[in-house]
Amino acid sequence: MDLVEIAPQAKPPVCKIIDFGKFKYEQQKREKIQRKNQIVSVLKEIRFHPNTDVHDFEFKTKHAINFLEEGNKVKATVMFKGREMAYTGQGKDLLNRFIERTEEIAKVETPIKLEGRNMSVILVPISKKGKKQKK
User: Fold this and answer.
1) Domain with 26 in it
2) Which residue, 1, 19, 63, 130, could crosslink 71 as a Cys pair with Cβ 3.0–4.6 Å?
């Protein structure tokens, strides 16, 4: 049996007389369960161009909705090439349309911003756990 300090912050500090090996084992077991129940968030990226067609936009939006339902974050990016930089307004309109299509299941984490030749927005699912949980 050992004298083990349980809560050193408390006034007065709390100590117990217990088997130290058993105490360490139970502590490791609790930490393992906490790590097991922890949800890992993955960032998925969907890429567009400013002149992306309607069908392609709908197809990629469906994929983004599936990612959000699984509980992943989604980064929607509009990539500009060459003279397309003159049409950043089209890219912003495209991202706003994307946000509108996913607003039932996602909220905007970072607003639309232009970084070099890419304009992006990050969406997070509204519910903490997705509808389709992976086992």
Assistant:
1) 2-37
2) 130
